Amino acid sequence: MKLIQIVIAFVIAPLFVSNNVKHEYYVSVTKIEYAEEQHSLQIISQIFIDDFEELLKMRYDEDIKLAPDSDSKMIDNYMKRYLSDKLEIKVNGNPVKFNFIGKEYKDDITYCYLEIENVSNIKSMEVVNRVLFDKFSDQQNIVRLKLLGKNRSFLLIPDNDKCMLNFD
Q1: What is the pLDDT of residue 72?
Q2: Where are the domains positioned within the chain?
Q3: DSSP annotation string for 76-109
Q4: What span, in angstroms and rounded, lies between the C-alpha atoms of 25 and 28?
Q5: Which of 32, 104, 111, 119 has minimal CB crowding within 10 Å?
Q6: For the sheet containing 124-129, what is the strand order?
Q7: Rounded to a whole number, what is the distance in angstroms from the first to the last CA of the chain?
Q8: What is the pLDDT of residues 103-157, one digit of tens each?
Q9: Which of 101, 124, 84, 128 has the alpha carbon at shortest distance from 43?
Q10: InterPro entries attached here (predicted)?
């Protein structure tokens, strides 16, 4: 009888533990790369699914679920609205708008694909990334820029949410 109780404990306990585990850090990664042939900036923002879902529930719809079988058009719209509000990019001092291409879920990360078209003659780029700062006070956002032969990474926090790269 004791053996059965031990086996049941080992089988059932992980189910309760795994549902309550939260990661200990809050971080996103946004990669911006210049595609010279297409004259476009290609952007991939990686955000933890559970954090993004919690934020979208708070802002837009408390019943939202970030999953492949969820209402994709509605979720895309919410993600685009949120990212448009929190991710600002300036090229040569001028604000530019991105197109929300789509998203996908891999493991525990949401990959958001964005693109800025008709970009050329880049002399400077400024990025403001406030993603999830309105939800998590200890959120950190890594911005990786890869363009015109330069690779730079920046760590942005709520008190310092902007980075700049000059090419002159």
Answers
A1: 85
A2: 23-166
A3: HHHHHHHHHHHEEEEETTEEE--EEEEEEEETTE
A4: 10
A5: 104
A6: 94-96, 87-91, 124-129, 162-166
A7: 76
A8: 999 999 999 999 999 999 999 999 999 999 999 999 999 999 999 888 999 999 9
A9: 101
A10: DUF6702
- Say which residue the tokens 């058009």 belong to: 73
Count CB atoms within 10 A of the CB of residue 132: 23
Given a contact cutoff of 8 angstroms between Cβ atoms, the answer to whether 155 and 142 are in contact is yes
124-129 vs 87-91, strand pairing mode:
antiparallel
Phi then psi dihedrals of residue 20, to 5 deg: -105, 0
Amino acid at 119: V
Closest CA to 31 of 87, 107, 85, 79: 87
What are the tens digits of pLDDT across the range 15-60? 444 444 455 779 999 999 999 999 999 999 999 999 999 999 999 9
**Residue 67 parent element (H or E):** none
